[in-house]
Design a protein that fits this description.
Elements: H1 2-12, E1 22-30, E2 33-41, H2 49-52, E3 61-69, H3 77-92, E4 98-104, H4 112-116, E5 120-132, E6 135-138, H5 153-160, E7 166-178
Parallel strand pairs: 3-4
Antiparallel strand pairs: 1-2, 2-3, 4-7, 5-6, 5-7
Length: 200
């Protein structure tokens, strides 16, 4: 259930907030106990898929927007959960050709979970975030205009208190999983070796 998934994310995910554009909500169960949630949906800019993989329509790709697993889950559970999710998506959403996700610098590990799930790595970039009252907001929320669909109470709170907000620049690591490998020839980014999550 969407509301149940959102509640779990708000209580447990490091971002402390759900993402409105998710539309696939999957629970992770161990012996009938709910121990995690994965939420898939649109990117922050839904039309951006074509700038990553040429010719991609909005319903032909997904972004893994949120994922949380309880620490009681055994090692490698995150990668296993992603793998099972992909099987589900492959069977229920045949239009989807590839899945994108970003590892956030705040998580540590540089995306080792995606490496374990056979995602390919397509480089890093930096994004600006704002921290206000122990909440973290993407810089895009600072520029949302009043009266638009994306102008929420959270956006208003951030913009009204910009003078108290602390700006952060964080690294984001992009990973792609090819459900249909024929689409890889259309990727507009350069595949790179996995970033190492440890020091040699």
């Amino acid at each position: 259930d969407r509301n149940k998934a959102n509640d779990i994310i708000v209580r447990n995910h490091y971002s402390k907030k759900y993402y409105n554009a998710t539309y696939i909500h999957l629970g992770v169960y161990m012996k009938n106990n709910l121990v995690g949630v994965l939420q898939f949906g649109y990117a922050m800019n839904p039309a951006s898929g074509g700038s990553v993989v040429k010719g991609t329509a909005n319903d032909q790709y997904l972004e893994l927007n949120r994922m949380w697993l309880d620490d009681i889950a055994p090692r490698n559970s995150e990668s296993m959960a992603i793998a099972y999710s992909i099987r589900y998506i492959r069977s229920k959403f045949p239009k989807v050709k590839w899945i994108q996700s970003f590892a956030d610098e705040r998580c540590g590990g540089f995306g080792i979970v995606y490496q374990g799930a056979n995602f390919e790595y397509y480089g890093e970039h930096t994004s600006d975030f704002w921290e206000l009252d122990d909440e973290v907001y993407h810089n895009i929320q600072m520029t949302v205009s009043k009266g638009t669909k994306r102008y929420s109470s959270a956006v208003k709170h951030l913009q009204d208190n910009k003078d108290r907000a602390k700006r952060m620049t964080l690294r984001q690591f992009r990973y792609i999983y090819w459900i249909d490998h024929r689409w890889k020839k259309n990727v507009l980014l350069e595949q790179k070796p996995y970033p190492k999550h440890y020091k040699e």
